[in-house]
Design goal:
By secondary structure, this protein is mainly beta. It contains five helices and 14 strands. The longest helix has 8 residues. The radius of gyration is 20 Å and the shape is globular.
Length: 192
């Protein structure tokens, strides 16, 4: 089955998993896509994000300078660099964002959704780097959080990796392993 995997920054992953962020914003995303989207939590060199639903009932960032100690952290499930959940994409709204909206009225349809995006008006404007863009607002529904975060290598690219080899004048076609080894910059089609 064809699905998507989406790279999301850890702080936004925590917002999604805690039920605060119910809409994801992207400049690039297939506007007609309907189906499962897997969430890959990108790595953060400065902070680790963990899941501790049983004790704290939420997802959170760990400050390694606090006094909880190793015994507490060793039982936590790290989210960074893992596929942590999936959601069903049932709707993608497309809205034009213009840099002049910093001084003119902001796009009303987007402004109404800022709380669900866990972003400010300035965040949405800065996301476009001062240029106009079409914001794809991806509705997050049917969120399923994995009990144990999955490794990227457990997923396969939807695109087949076929290599032709010529041996003794004969051509052989072989399909190489297409397990993911690198996270997508934005999103990627996968086979589930």
């Amino acid at each position: 089955m064809k699905s998507l995997i989406l790279s999301v920054k850890p702080k936004y992953v925590a917002d999604i998993l805690n039920g605060l962020k119910t809409i994801e914003i992207r400049k690039r995303f297939p506007k007609d896509y309907r189906g499962w989207v897997y969430i890959y939590c990108t790595k953060d060199k400065l902070k680790d994000y963990y899941y501790d639903k049983d004790i704290l009932g939420c997802y959170f960032r760990v400050n390694l300078d606090d006094n909880l100690g190793y015994e507490y952290y060793k039982n936590l499930k790290p989210l960074n660099g893992k596929v942590v959940a999936r959601f069903y994409c049932d709707n993608v709204d497309v809205h034009h964002i213009l840099p002049t909206e910093k001084i003119l009225p902001f796009n009303k349809n987007v402004e109404e959704k800022l709380v669900q995006l866990c972003l400010t008006k300035e965040d949405v404007m800065n996301y476009g780097n001062g240029e106009d863009y079409y914001a794809k607002l991806i509705n997050i529904s049917k969120l399923e959080i994995f009990d144990t975060p999955k490794e990227l290598s457990e997923f396969k690219s939807y695109k087949k990796n076929i290599v032709n080899a010529k041996i003794n004048g004969m051509v052989f076609e072989t399909e190489l392993d297409n397990s993911l080894t690198k996270a997508p910059q934005n999103y990627m089609y996968i086979e589930v």
